[in-house]
Design a protein that fits this description.
Order of helices and strands: EEEHHEEHH
CATH superfamily of one domain: ADC-like domains
Number of helices: 4
Strand content: 15-25%
Helix content: 25-40%
CATH topology of one domain: N-terminal domain of TfIIb
Distance between the termini: 48 Å
Number of strands: 5
CATH class of one domain: Mainly Beta
Structural class: alpha+beta
CATH architecture of one domain: Single Sheet
Radius of gyration: 20 Å
Largest sheet: 3 strands, antiparallel
Length: 154
């Protein structure tokens, strides 16, 4: 049997920022055929670790490809909330999750907007299928009142 080598369709370095912590270090990710295979600090950067990469950034590929990583929203199906109680998580769609959370956030905004702290940052735990650029504008448009200013940083 011969080893057949597949033709590489894509081999690029993507310049971006690490989101494993709030330093948001400048990084470059080596992507081959849609698969990230290496992460390096951006050598000329003055941002974050200034060209370096900490342990969290170095381990980002392990997190990205962890078979136990959550890629879908979950809803608790057991109303009992106590230590030792099984929450009985059930997978739901992103549309279901947004349909459930948006009315709750709107109610808080109507009753007392000071109770709502809306801080987001993209992290490596977010699934690639649902980047922050997908759900943030949806949530912002449907929840935030015109007088409420929310700045989203990716």
């Amino acid at each position: 049997m011969q080893n057949v080598r597949q033709k590489i369709e894509e081999d690029i370095w993507v310049h971006t920022n690490c989101a494993r912590c709030y330093a948001f270090c400048a990084i470059r990710v080596h992507r081959v055929d849609g698969v990230a295979i290496e992460i390096q600090g951006e050598p000329d950067s003055t941002f974050g670790a200034q060209g370096g990469l900490c342990g969290k950034g170095t381990a980002a590929l392990q997190v990205l490809y962890d078979p136990n990583r959550l890629n879908v929203p979950l809803r608790r199906s057991n109303p009992e909330k106590c230590i030792g109680a099984d929450p009985r998580w059930k997978e739901i769609t992103w549309d279901e999750a947004l349909a459930e959370i948006i009315p709750r956030l709107k109610k808080i905004l109507e009753e007392d907007p000071k109770k709502l702290v809306f801080m987001t940052a993209q992290t490596a735990r977010q699934p690639q299928k649902l980047s922050s650029n997908t759900w943030r504008p949806t949530l912002h448009k449907q929840v935030c009142a015109p007088k409420v200013c929310v700045r989203f940083v990716s």
